[in-house]
Amino acid sequence: MDNDIQEVLFDQDSIHHAAVRLGKQITKDYAGEEPVVLSVLKGAYLWTADLLREVDLYVKLEFIKISSYHGGVSSTNSISLVTDIHSDVQGRDVIILEDIVDTGQSLLFLKKLLAERGAKSIQVATLLDKKEGRKVEIKADYIGFDVRNEFVVGYGLDYKEMYRNLPYVGILKKEVYSD
Ligand SMILES: O=P(O)(O)OC[C@H]1O[C@H](OP(=O)(O)OP(=O)(O)O)[C@H](O)[C@@H]1O
Ligand code: HPA
After folding, report:
1. Tell me, what CATH number does 153's domain have?
2. φ/ψ of residue 55, rounded to 5
3. Considering the domain boundaries, does residue 75 fall inside one?
4. Complex ipTM, two decimals?
5. Where is the Phosphoribosyltransferase domain (predicted)?
6. What is the pTM assigned to this prediction?
C-alpha cells in the first residue's frame, strides 16, 4: 500500500500527539460528566480507539454508521442512516467522533438527528478538518489537524473501501484513481 501514496501528511507520531492533546482537553472540559461518545463508522474506527484511550472519563461508547460518499472521491448530497444506535441520548452530553469533516453534510445530518432526540449538548472531535471543502456552515469543536482541500486516505479514511488500515494519513498517487 505504501507504494500507492504520493505524500504522507500526518504520520503515526503526529496523530498520537493529536490524540493526547485532544484527549487531555476533553478530559478537562467534561470533568465530572459522563458523556456519550458517538463514533461515526467506518472512518472513525482508529481515531476512536486512539483518542478514547487518552480520555480519562466514564463514557458510554456508541457506534453509528451513515453513508455519504459511495467509495470514490466525489460526494453526493444525500446522507443516509445505515446503522443506528439503540440507546437514548435524551438529556445526555454527546461527543461525536469523526475522522474528517469535509463538506460538513454528514455532521449536519448527525447534529440534527441528535438534537431531535433531545441531546443536552453536542460537540465534535475530528482528526481532520477540511475547511475548504465545506458546503454547509458547521464547525468542529476539537480538531486534530486542518487538512488542505485534497482527497486523503489512511487511518480510517478510504478510497473505494481500501487504505483504511494505513497507520498514517496521506494522498494517493494520481495513477491509483480509477474515477
Ligand atoms: O463532511 P462530509 O463531506 O460529509 O464528509 C465526512 C464524512 O465522510 C466520510 O464518511 P463516509 O460517508 O465516506 O463513510 P465511511 O466513514 O464509512 O468511509 C467520513 O468518514 C465522514 O464521516
Ligand atoms: O478526503 C477524504 N478522504 C476519504 N474520505 C472522505 N470523506 C470526506 N472527505 C474524504
Report:
1. 3.40.50.2020
2. -105, 120
3. no
4. 0.98
5. 12-160
6. 0.95
CB 126 within 8 A of CB 99: yes
Distance, CA 91 to ligand 2 centroid (Å)? 31
User: Residue 18: what are its φ and ψ, rounded to 5°?
Assistant: -65, -40
Q: How far is CA 158 from CA 27, 60, 85, in A?
A: 29, 27, 23
Domain containing residue 25: 2-67+85-173
Which residue's C-alpha cell is 472512518? 43
Residue among 83, 100, 161 to mutate when testing ligand 1 (max atoms within 8 A of CB): 100
Give the pLDDT confidence of 88-128 residue by residue, as tens digits: 999 999 999 999 999 999 999 999 999 999 999 999 999 99
From 93, 102, 129, 158, the catalytic residue: 102
Q: Is residue 117 part of a domain?
A: yes
- The span from the CA of 175 to the CA of 161, in Å, is 17
